[in-house]
C-alpha cells in the first residue's frame, strides 16, 4: 500500500544517510543505492534479510524523503517488525506515523504484537489513538483496547495476549498440533500454559517437556502445576524482580480469580529494567525525566528547574541558619574555613547511604531484613566512618592551625555529622518506601541539602557551646 506522498520522484540527498550508517554491520551502500535507483526488488532482497534491529537502525538514520521510499518498498506487515525495534520516544513515533498514510499505519499496528502496539499508542494523543483503532483490523483493535485499559506501569500494561494455551485433559500429541498451529502468532513458544474449562491457569509445560515426552501421555501428567504468576495490577518493577529471581523467559499474568490474561516476556522486562533504572537515576540526580537526551535547552531546563528551585530555597534556609551563628563566627572567624568540609562530608556520606538504600529497595534485599538490623548496621557504619574521619581531621587541623581544641571541635563535628547523615541517607528512602512513595524521590541533591542543614546545626551548636575554650 502506498503512503501519502510516496509517489514523489527524485533521488534525494542520501550522503548524510551514508555517513550515519557507515559503521553498521550490513551493506548500507547497497541499500542506499537501491533507494536512489528506486530498485524495489534489489532493496527488498537485501533489506528483508536483515535482523529487525538492523532494519530499524538503517531506517532511523534516513531522512524523510528516503523513508517515504521505504514505506513504498515494504508492506505494513514487514514494517511492523521494524517498528517494534525502533525504540523511539513520543516525538519520534508521532513524526514517523505522520509520514505514513493512516491506513498504512493502522495496518502496521495491527500486525505488531499487541503489547508493542500498546507501547506505541500510549505515546500518542487520545484522538490519534481513537483514529487508528477505528480503522484497524477489528480483532487486533479489540485486543489492543483490552490492554489499554490497564493502569500504566503494571503487569497488565506490559503483557501480551499472543500466547499458547492448552487443556490439561489432552495428549501431548494434540498439544503439539496446537503448538504448531498457533506458533506463528505467538510471541514465545518456550512455555505453553495449561488452563481448565473456565480458562483458569492450572499449569505450565515447557517446549522441552513436550518434545521429550511420549505423544500418548496426558498433559496433566507432565505439566508443572505450581505456577508462578503475576497479578494484572502488580507493579512492573515487582514483576521484573520475580522474573529475575526465577530466571523465567516468560511469566503468566492472571486476574484475582486465576484466569489467564496474558504473558510477559523477557524482552519486555529488559525494557522495564532499563526504564526503571533511568527513572531512578533521574530522580537521584534531581531531574524530572531522563528518558532521552534533550537537544532543546528550554526542554532540558524545564526538567531540571523544579528540584533546583526547591533546593535554592533550602540553600537560602541554610544561609540564614549560618547567619544565626554570626556572633560565634565574629568571635572565632577560623570556624568559617571548615564549613565546606563539614557540609561536604555530610553530603557525601548521605549520598552513599542513599544509593545503597535505593538499590536495596529496588532489588528487594532490604525487605528481607528487619528495620532494627538496618538501623543498627547503618549506625555502626556511620560510627566507624565518622570516628575514622574525625580522628584524621583532628590531627590535620591541629598540625595546620596549632590548636588542639579547634581540631577536636571539627573532628567531633564530623563524627556526629557522619553518623546522622548516614542514618538520614538510609532511613529517609526506607520511610518513603513504607509510605508507598518512590524512594528515588529522596534524590541526591535533596539528601545533600538536608544534611548540609544538619551538619551546620551540629558544627555551630558544638562551637557555640564551647565558645569559651575557642576564644582563650
Automatic annotation (TrEMBL):
<keyword id="KW-1003">Cell membrane</keyword>
<comment type="subunit">
    <text>Homodimer.</text>
</comment>
<keyword id="KW-0460">Magnesium</keyword>
<keyword id="KW-0813">Transport</keyword>
<keyword id="KW-0472">Membrane</keyword>
<dbReference type="InterPro" id="IPR000644">
    <property type="entry name" value="CBS_dom"/>
</dbReference>
<feature type="transmembrane region" description="Helical">
    <location>
        <begin position="305"/>
        <end position="322"/>
    </location>
</feature>
<feature type="transmembrane region" description="Helical">
    <location>
        <begin position="334"/>
        <end position="358"/>
    </location>
</feature>
<dbReference type="InterPro" id="IPR046342">
    <property type="entry name" value="CBS_dom_sf"/>
</dbReference>
<dbReference type="InterPro" id="IPR038076">
    <property type="entry name" value="MgtE_N_sf"/>
</dbReference>
<dbReference type="InterPro" id="IPR006669">
    <property type="entry name" value="MgtE_transporter"/>
</dbReference>
<dbReference type="GO" id="GO:0015095">
    <property type="term" value="F:magnesium ion transmembrane transporter activity"/>
</dbReference>
<dbReference type="Pfam" id="PF00571">
    <property type="entry name" value="CBS"/>
</dbReference>
<comment type="similarity">
    <text>Belongs to the SLC41A transporter family.</text>
</comment>
<feature type="transmembrane region" description="Helical">
    <location>
        <begin position="379"/>
        <end position="400"/>
    </location>
</feature>
<dbReference type="InterPro" id="IPR036739">
    <property type="entry name" value="SLC41_membr_dom_sf"/>
</dbReference>
<dbReference type="GO" id="GO:0005886">
    <property type="term" value="C:plasma membrane"/>
</dbReference>
<feature type="transmembrane region" description="Helical">
    <location>
        <begin position="453"/>
        <end position="471"/>
    </location>
</feature>
<keyword id="KW-0129">CBS domain</keyword>
<protein>
    <recommendedName>
        <fullName>Magnesium transporter MgtE</fullName>
    </recommendedName>
</protein>
<keyword id="KW-0479">Metal-binding</keyword>
<keyword id="KW-0812">Transmembrane</keyword>
<feature type="domain" description="CBS">
    <location>
        <begin position="159"/>
        <end position="220"/>
    </location>
</feature>
<feature type="transmembrane region" description="Helical">
    <location>
        <begin position="406"/>
        <end position="432"/>
    </location>
</feature>
<dbReference type="GO" id="GO:0046872">
    <property type="term" value="F:metal ion binding"/>
</dbReference>
<dbReference type="Pfam" id="PF03448">
    <property type="entry name" value="MgtE_N"/>
</dbReference>
<keyword id="KW-1133">Transmembrane helix</keyword>
<dbReference type="InterPro" id="IPR006667">
    <property type="entry name" value="SLC41_membr_dom"/>
</dbReference>
<comment type="function">
    <text>Acts as a magnesium transporter.</text>
</comment>
<dbReference type="Pfam" id="PF01769">
    <property type="entry name" value="MgtE"/>
</dbReference>
<dbReference type="InterPro" id="IPR006668">
    <property type="entry name" value="Mg_transptr_MgtE_intracell_dom"/>
</dbReference>
<feature type="domain" description="CBS">
    <location>
        <begin position="223"/>
        <end position="281"/>
    </location>
</feature>
Amino acid at each position: 500500500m502506498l503512503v501519502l506522498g510516496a509517489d514523489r520522484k527524485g533521488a534525494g540527498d542520501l550522503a548524510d544517510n551514508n555517513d550515519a550508517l557507515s559503521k553498521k554491520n550490513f551493506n548500507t551502500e547497497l541499500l542506499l543505492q537501491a533507494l536512489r535507483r528506486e530498485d524495489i526488488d534489489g532493496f527488498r532482497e537485501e533489506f528483508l534479510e536483515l535482523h529487525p534491529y538492523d532494519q530499524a537502525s538503517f531506517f532511523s538514520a534516513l531522512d524523510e524523503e528516503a523513508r517515504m521510499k521505504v514505506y513504498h518498498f515494504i508492506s505494513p506487515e514487514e514494517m511492523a517488525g521494524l517498528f517494534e525495534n525502533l525504540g523511539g520516544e513520543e516525538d519520534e513515533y508521532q513524526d514517523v506515523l505522520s509520514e505514513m498514510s493512516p491506513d498504512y499505519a493502522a495496518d502496521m499496528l495491527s500486525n505488531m504484537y499487541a503489547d508493542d502496539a500498546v507501547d506505541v499508542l500510549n505515546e500518542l494523543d487520545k484522538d490519534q489513538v481513537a483514529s487508528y483503532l477505528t480503522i484497524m483490523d477489528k480483532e487486533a483493535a479489540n485486543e489492543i483496547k483490552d490492554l489499554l485499559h490497564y493502569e500504566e506501569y503494571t503487569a497488565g500494561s506490559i503483557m501480551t495476549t499472543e500466547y499458547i494455551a492448552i487443556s490439561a485433559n489432552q495428549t501431548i500429541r494434540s498439544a503439539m498440533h496446537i503448538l504448531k498451529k498457533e506458533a506463528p502468532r505467538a510471541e514465545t513458544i518456550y512455555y505453553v500454559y495449561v488452563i481448565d474449562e473456565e480458562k483458569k491457569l492450572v499449569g505450565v509445560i515447557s517446549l522441552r517437556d513436550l518434545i521429550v515426552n511420549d505423544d500418548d501421555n496426558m498433559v496433566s501428567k507432565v505439566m508443572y502445576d505450581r505456577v508462578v504468576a503475576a497479578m494484572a495490577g502488580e507493579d512492573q518493577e515487582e514483576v521484573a524482580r520475580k522474573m529475575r529471581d526465577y530466571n523465567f523467559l516468560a511469566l503468566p499474568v492472571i486476574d484475582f480469580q486465576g484466569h489467564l490474561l496474558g504473558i510477559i516476556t523477557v524482552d519486555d522486562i529488559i525494557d522495564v529494567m532499563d526504564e526503571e533504572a533511568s527513572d531512578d537515576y533521574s530522580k537521584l540526580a534531581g531531574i524530572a525525566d531522563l528518558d532521552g537526551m534533550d537537544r532543546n535547552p528550554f526542554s532540558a531546563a524545564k526538567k531540571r528547574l523544579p528540584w533546583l528551585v526547591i533546593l535554592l530555597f533550602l540553600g537560602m534556609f541554610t544561609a540564614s541558619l549560618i547567619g544565626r551563628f554570626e556572633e560565634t563566627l565574629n568571635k572565632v572567624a577560623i570556624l568559617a574555613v571548615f564549613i565546606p568540609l563539614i557540609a561536604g562530608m555530610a553530603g557525601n556520606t548521605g549520598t552513599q547511604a542513599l544509593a545503597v538504600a535505593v538499590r536495596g529497595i529496588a532489588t528487594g534485599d532490604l525487605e528481607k531484613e528487619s528495620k532494627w538490623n538496618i538501623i543498627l548496621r547503618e549506625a555502626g557504619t556511620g560510627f566507624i566512618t565518622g570516628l575514622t574521619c574525625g580522628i584524621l581531621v583532628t590531627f590535620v587541623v591541629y598540625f595546620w592551625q596549632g590548636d588542639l581544641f579547634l581540631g577536636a571541635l571539627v573532628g567531633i563535628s564530623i563524627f556526629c555529622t557522619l553518623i546522622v547523615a548516614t542514618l538520614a541517607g538510609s532511613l529517609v528512602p526506607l520511610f518513603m518506601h513504607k509510605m508507598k512513595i518512590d524512594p528515588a524521590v529522596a534524590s541526591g541533591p535533596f539528601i545533600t541539602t538536608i544534611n548540609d542543614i544538619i551538619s551546620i546545626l551540629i558544627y555551630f551548636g558544638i562551637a557555640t557551646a564551647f565558645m569559651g575554650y575557642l576564644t582563650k
